[in-house]
Structure formats: structure tokens, C-alpha cells
Amino acid sequence: MEINDVLARINELAHKKKSGQELTEAELVEKKELYRIYLDFIRGQVISQMDRVSFVDEKGNITSAKDVAAANQAKNTKLS
User: Structure pTM?
Assistant: First the structure.
């Protein structure tokens, strides 16, 4: 299912609920699944964007965000 289709269906269900109609049990289950799909999509977009981030120090050394995160995680596990 395309993300635009997911958003369209989420909006349909939201409009139905806002109009005062009760959502059926099947629609409630569908809504929950649609929100999960949508949130997974957004998380994927954020992760993809963060994977392209790099840091440059004063000496011009380039470090990826993944490397910085791994170093921070290793440092935090040593402290625990």
C-alpha cells in the first residue's frame, strides 16, 4: 500500500469519527494498523536522513553520524 493511500484512509476514518459516527471494530483494527504503517514510514525517512549526516571537526576529519552513535553507545556501555 502506498503511503498516500494510507494517509487517505486514515483521513477517511478520522472524518467518519469526527462526524459523530462510531468506527466498527474492524475499522478500529484497520486504523491501528494504518498508524503503524505510517509511523514505520516516518521512522524510515528519519533514519535514512540521519544516515546521510556527517560531522566535520576542526581538522577537517569527516565522521558519519553512525560512527558517532556507535562511539557514544560503546562509551555508555563502558560506564554502566
Answer: 0.70
